[in-house]
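Human: I'm a chemist; would you kindly supply sequence and structure tokens for a protein?

Assistant:
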Amino acid sequence: MSKKEKKQPQLSLKEKRKLKQEKAAEKGVVKARKSSRK
């Protein structure tokens, strides 16, 4: 488990960036869908 914990921090930073990009993309899609419906 110690080895995984040591590797997690580095992955978490990259994962956080991916999550932020995914969330931003989802928000963009939702806004685009709402605007198109209006």
Observations:
- The mean pLDDT is 76.
- The CA atoms of residues 28 and 34 lie 10 Å apart.
- Residues 1-38 form one domain.
- The chain has one domain: 1-38.
